[in-house]
Design brief:
By secondary structure, the chain is an alpha+beta fold. The protein is about 15% helix and about 30% strand. Helix 2 (about 50-60) packs antiparallel against helix 14 (about 740-760). InterPro entries: AB_hydrolase_fold, Peptidase_S9_cat, Peptidase_S9A, Prolyl_oligopep/macrocyclase. This is Prolyl endopeptidase.
Length: about 775
């Protein structure tokens, strides 16, 4: 795996050889660094802290909630003809570190001890294939576009595409799986099988697959994702598949897929999409009949007229679009005036419109309805549909809230929901949106263990003020508790508070702090400040049991900063930290750290910072621009070389976030937040830093971490620059391929930060 084939050689970079991922020289550097790291910090597996054992016991605990996905219904009692739902789950434990894909019925799932049946044993498959497989999910053949005689008239899922990666990389192998015989469909049987690539594949019908993959020269974008979509007919060779859609080499990716809305009184939509940047796309849509989805030689297509032409969806390129029944949902990332001189719809709003009118008569002829409109402190966070309801999730000051709407012929009618936003994570997902209004309810909080309940959107009630009626302290839509995670760490006397720091430009930056109720304000509390601040990704309350066992149980304070660049207050909050405004993210994080010091929760010597990926870039910036604020830093799977990030692996796809180093962006602002180029040789002291990454990370190139560390070691000789480096040989962008690796990496990081800060108490 050489990631530099398309990257121009930077003759001024003496460490560019570390970009050759699996060269002998690069791997020897990583192995030597790993040995040196464990020699200096100790092996977490044998540490007296027992952090590794605690984390591993959590990750492999049989008390974890087995979350499930429904794959249709089947007759479970031949005598009575009783049907039950088939639920699937991917389960990992100490005996099955790679996992079991298994099934049970809903009736059994509701019991304390469900009767699980193994469908695919990933560990056994890895042994058989002699490949360290990591499960990456499945993509099922939609039941309604399957052969009715095989799917029991759309009740049963019969086929799915399984994705498996070597060692946890983003690139996957695709294998078709028969859900009836519970065996892989071989190529000899006409099965859809694809080699390792960053493939995008979905069923057009049972025997036709949309595939974007690595078909050879010119088939991938600069970001390494599909540039070409082919229509692959079962029983033919992929090499003979017809190209049906192409994008530009400079695009991030393209795709084609089906959206069957017949159950909601809509048509079947065929959709093609070009994602030009991380935040902009163009889409083309046409309505088709079921027969149009079939293979060209299928007898059922005889006499069927050709489908209509594709119509470009005339919305802003940064808007999100999806089809639901007869409506088209439009989420806005910038203000929009669809009718010249008409209403301006605000950034962050969610609109809906009659899809047929929009596509046939144009956007000017439409009646736009607002489902959600943000304020300065609220943000749209997504939605899910049951058969008859829409459940909208929003945030208010980074606290979650659910609202319920009945879907009618004319639109969406509000029927109830949470009256107050709460410091918790609360998500809703349809159990089976084609069958009923049942919903999964997922709740958790910083100190509240995760719980899974069953709800029913049709039970939502509200009085004239829109206030939810509660029964036995349960929301009206709650039906029954199903699973609850026991406390995985001792949260006795822990409290969660939300506070606000003032950034350099006066903006109030929220952060959540978890601490003992009677925390002593003497500056000596080992405090961990975590942040991300990018790609419109929000941080917020959720149960992180590994943080609890590794940090809070020891008496530490845990803090999450909701800095700009994230999505906590919608697209505007994210856009406030883009490109030339990136410094706002870093100023926000520094402001949170300074607020903790000023409030005497901690002092610089007892304050650690941690972040990964884009958060790793954040850590690199804290290391180089605010070294006196932190006593320890953990920088995980980071971006650090912003001069070459766009030439490495998926880096080109992030130029919409950071900028283009090959333009004036570099001189104007990018050089200001490239930690690799900000190392100050005159600096006498930098805080202790642990840098971790994965050899198999094919999203953020491990060279970012490798080069930074090697440069620091070379320039920091005879200086107080303690830097430790560990590169997991497997793991992908997540940094670990199984529970043991994850526990190892977690313990290494938390023990390093804790030990370092405890030494700082005396400073």
């Amino acid at each position: 795996m050489t990631a530099t084939s398309s990257a121009p050689v930077d003759t001024e970079d003496p460490y560019i050889w570390l970009e050759d991922v699996e060269s002998e020289k690069s791997l020897n550097f990583a192995k030597d660094a790993n040995a040196k790291c464990l020699e200096q910090l100790g092996d977490p597996k044998t540490s007296s802290t027992n952090t590794y054992d605690k984390v591993l016991s959590i990750l492999e605990s049989n008390d974890r909630i087995a979350y499930v996905t429904k794959y249709g219904t089947m007759v479970t009692d031949e005598a009575t003809g009783e049907e039950d739902s088939i639920m699937f789950n991917l389960w990992k434990d100490s005996k099955n570190p790679k996992g079991l894909w298994r099934k049970t019925t809903m009736k059994s799932y509701k019991t304390d001890n469900p009767a699980w049946v193994t469908v695919v044993d990933i560990d056994a498959l890895a042994k058989e294939d002699d490949i360290s497989w990591v499960w990456k999910g499945s993509s099922a053949l939609p039941r309604r576009i399957d052969d009715p005689s095989l799917s029991n008239n759309g009740k049963r899922t019969t086929r799915t595409l399984l994705s498996l990666s070597r060692g946890g990389a983003d690139a996957t192998h695709t294998k078709e799986f028969d859900m009836l015989t519970e065996t892989f469909v071989t190529e000899a049987e006409g099965g859809f099988t694809l080699p390792e690539a960053k493939t995008r594949a979905s069923y057009k019908s049972r025997d036709v697959l949309y595939v974007g993959s690595d078909f050879g020269e010119g088939s991938l974008t600069d970001s390494g994702y599909p540039r070409v979509v082919k229509e692959w007919i079962r029983g033919t060779k992929i090499e003979d598949a017809k190209t049906v859609f192409e994008g530009e080499k400079t695009d991030v990716s393209i795709s084609a897929y089906m959206s069957d809305q017949r159950l909601r009184n809509g048509p079947i939509y065929e959709i093609r999409s070009r994602q030009m940047t991380f935040y902009t796309s163009k889409r083309w849509v046409r309505r088709v009949k079921f027969e149009h989805l079939l293979a060209p030689n299928d007898p059922a297509r005889e006499g069927i007229e050709e489908p209509e032409e594709f119509i470009e969806v005339d919305v802003q390129e940064d808007a999100g679009v999806s089809m639901v029944g007869k409506f088209m949902m439009i989420s806005l990332r910038s203000d929009w005036v669809p009718v010249p001189g008409g209403t301006t719809y605000k950034t962050g709003s969610l609109l809906y419109v009659d899809a047929d009118t929009f596509l046939t008569k144009g956007k000017e002829a439409c009646d736009y309805r607002i489902l959600f409109e943000p304020t300065d402190r609220t943000a749209y966070d997504g939605y899910t549909f049951t058969k008859n309801y829409c459940i909208l999730s929003s945030m208010e000051n980074v606290k979650s809230k659910l609202s319920f709407f009945k879907v009618t012929e004319d639109g969406f009618e509000f029927v109830g929901g949470d009256t107050e936003a709460k410091i918790r994570a609360c998500d809703a997902g349809a159990v089976d949106s084609s069958e009923n209004d049942e919903i999964w309810l997922y709740t958790s909080g910083y100190t509240q263990p995760s719980a899974l309940s069953l709800g029913d959107a049709s039970l939502v009630t509200a009085d004239a003020k829109g206030e939810v009626t509660e029964e036995d302290e349960k929301d009206s839509y709650h039906v029954e508790d199903l699973k609850s995670l026991p406390a995985m760490y001792d949260a006795t006397d822990l409290v969660v508070n939300q506070k606000f720091a003032t950034s350099k430009d006066g903006t109030k930056i929220p952060y959540f702090i978890v601490s003992k109720k009677d925390v002593v304000l003497d500056g000596n509390n080992p405090t961990l400040l975590y942040g991300y601040g990018g790609f419109e990704i929000s941080l917020g309350p959720k149960y992180i049991s590994t943080v609890g066992a590794s940090w809070l149980e020891r008496g530490g304070v845990y803090v999450e900063a909701n800095i700009r660049g994230g999505g906590e207050f919608g697209p505007s909050w994210h856009q406030a930290g883009l490109k030339a405004k990136r410094h706002k993210c870093y100023e926000d994080f520094i402001a949170c750290g300074e607020d903790l010091v000023e409030s005497k929760i901690c002092k610089p010597a007892t304050l650690a910072a941690r972040g990964g990926s884009n958060g790793g870039l954040l850590m690199g910036m804290m290391y180089t621009t605010a070294p006196n604020l932190f006593g320890a830093i953990h920088c995980a799977v980071p971006l650090l070389d912003m001069k070459r990030f766009h030439t490495l692996l998926a880096g080109a796809s992030w130029m919409a976030e950071y900028g283009d180093p090959d333009t004036t962006d570099w001189d104007e602002f990018l050089h200001k937040y490239s930690p690799y180029h900000l190392i100050d040789e005159k600096q006498d002291k930098y805080p202790p830093m642990l840098v971790t990454t994965s050899t198999r990370d094919d999203r953020v190139h491990p060279a970012h971490a490798r080069k930074m560390v090697k440069k620091l070691w070379d320039l920091g000789k005879d200086k107080d620059w303690p830097v430790y480096y560990y590169e997991n040989i497997e793991g992908g962008h997540g940094g670990a391929a199984d529970a043991k690796q994850s526990a190892f990496m977690t313990a290494l990081a938390y023990d390093f930060m804790w030990d370092t800060l405890c030494r700082g108490k005396s400073e």
